[in-house]
Design a protein that fits this description.
This protein is 82% helix and 2% strand. By secondary structure, it is an all-alpha fold. It has a single domain (56-188, 227-344), classed as A middle domain of Talin 1. Helix 8 packs antiparallel against helix 9. The protein starts with a helix and ends with a helix.
């Protein structure tokens, strides 16, 4: 009896340490990304790089840095492909269903024709590209294994380069057309002395890297201790944690009435996650996509298609309404309920 109690207490303490490691790692990743962004933005500003360019590169990178660090750290270990891929999958599903849904509940989201005809369809295309790369056996029954190779990773990075070029082109056209009005929507850059900017940047980078290591170790340990698949932990808890910056940024933008920034943040983050995060992770180490289920991949594609449909058929012209936002949030809750059921069944 005493031995059983001691054994139970030991397991409980080990799980507590893993959860603490996971939480500390998450806080380090989020804060490290914040410091890294502030330092890099200030350095770029010192070299007279425009606020628009900083917003499209450094700030956009900052909100997706948690996904990048977590997936890259997981890939570098060579045995955590489920976390590397699941983090991207879960983050993209959460970004659309939860973040867009919550923002729409706060304030109905007006959609531009550019969003409707270019941006959201590009999200769907990116999701399909990821599905094809991840499900080689599903596409070609004669192929042995579902591996996202280094070659496919380089292809994703090439897509990212094209997307970045297109984004810069569209942003500059908007800046030329609207002039000073577009500058109002650009995030203000903190102005620090160069030594302080460099220090903040380096500290942020170090905290990000060590935090990512803590975060991945904690997530893997929790999954192992509870007998849950790493893929389930990755698409739920890990993805939820790394998506906090996007959620915070989008909700704050919506509260200020800047819903176009909130929508752009989600679209940009999803494309960044697939093209850059997954690209870098698979170049670091080929990823075993066999750890992921077809359901999760179809859920990512389905959420992007639902996003596009709601942009298209809103009761108000080109608007995602509160009702549609509620449907998206409910879909997110159903997805999580399925994952919890799947975990408890030990599948």
């Amino acid at each position: 009896m005493l031995w059983n109690y001691y054994h139970f207490l030991t397991i409980g303490m080990e799980l507590f340490v893993l959860i603490l490691k996971f939480v500390i790692g998450l806080l380090m990743v989020i804060k490290g990304a914040d410091w890294l962004t502030d330092g890099a933005s200030s350095i770029a500003h010192k070299f007279n790089i425009s606020s628009l360019v900083i917003g499209l590169t450094v700030v956009a990178f900052g909100t997706s840095a948690p996904e990048l660090v977590v997936s890259t750290v997981a890939a570098s270990g060579g045995n955590s492909s489920a976390i590397a891929i699941g983090n991207v999958l879960g983050s993209n599903i959460f970004n659309i269903l939860a973040i867009v849904g919550i923002v729409a509940l706060v304030y109905p989201i007006p959609v531009t024709r550019g969003n409707l005809h270019h941006d959201v369809p590009l999200c769907i295309l990116a999701s399909i590209v990821m599905f094809v790369m991840a499900m080689d056996v599903f596409v070609d029954s004669n192929y042995m294994g579902n591996i996202i190779s280094r070659g496919e990773g380089i292809t994703l990075l090439a897509f990212f380069g094209i997307f970045l070029t297109y984004t810069f082109s569209m942003a500059r056209k908007t800046e030329e057309t609207k002039g000073s009005e577009s500058e109002k929507n650009v995030q203000k850059v903190k102005d620090y002395p160069i030594w302080k900017s460099s220090l903040i940047f380096l500290v942020g980078l170090a905290v990000l890297i060590f935090g990512g290591d803590f975060f991945v170790d904690g997530a893997s340990g929790i999954a192992t201790s509870l007998g849950i698949k790493e893929s389930v932990v990755a698409v739920t808890i890990v993805a939820l944690g790394t998506s906090f910056p996007e959620l915070f940024t989008s909700v704050m933008a919506a509260r200020k009435g800047n819903t176009d920034m909130a929508l752009g943040n989600v679209i940009g983050s999803n494309l960044f996650n697939i093209f850059f995060v997954l690209g870098v992770a698979s170049v670091v180490h080929p990823l075993d996509a066999g750890t992921m289920s077809k359901f999760d991949l179809f859920a990512m594609i389905g959420s992007a298609v639902l996003f596009w449909v709601f942009c298209l058929i809103g009761k108000q012209k080109l608007t995602i309404s509160r009702g549609e936002g509620l449907i998206m949030v409910l879909c997110m809750l159903c997805y999580y309920a399925y994952q919890v059921f799947n975990a408890t069944q030990g599948q």
